[in-house]
Backbone:
């Protein structure tokens, strides 16, 4: 039986580096669904129904890392909405190109819940602002 409901992935934060070499944790939610025309292909490719762990999550994590490295730590906060939009758009390509998924995954939305900067970086900014 097929359901067209959307799945939500609340992933553990993705640890990645910014353009200026700082480690940040990106906490995201990805809402996606399976294309009805690709259900049979997806089940043939993943008979253990483990496409989430074997294909979807690694693609999402890699996409986050590949995107965040283009922004400085400050830009990740200032351009958060842009990053979310670009990430949603950039996930479409790997889900389409990945041979094991064959275009079966459709991204509905990406929500950046939190971008956590290193404590020492945040403290330095707060000190500058206080002075």
Residues:
């Amino acid at each position: 039986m097929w359901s067209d409901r959307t799945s939500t992935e609340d992933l553990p934060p993705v640890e990645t580096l910014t353009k200026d070499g700082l480690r940040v944790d990106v906490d995201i939610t990805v809402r996606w669904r399976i294309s009805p025309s690709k259900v049979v292909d997806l089940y043939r490719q993943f008979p253990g129904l483990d496409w989430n762990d074997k294909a979807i999550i690694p693609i999402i994590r890699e996409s986050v890392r590949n995107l965040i490295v283009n922004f400085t730590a400050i830009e990740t906060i200032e351009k958060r909405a842009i990053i979310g939009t670009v990430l949603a758009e950039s996930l479409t390509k790997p889900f389409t190109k990945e041979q094991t998924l064959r275009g079966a995954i459709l991204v509905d939305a990406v929500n950046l819940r939190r971008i956590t900067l290193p404590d020492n970086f945040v403290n330095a900014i707060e000190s500058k602002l206080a002075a």
Summary: The mean pLDDT is 87. The beta strands are 7-10, 14-17, 23-34, 105-116.
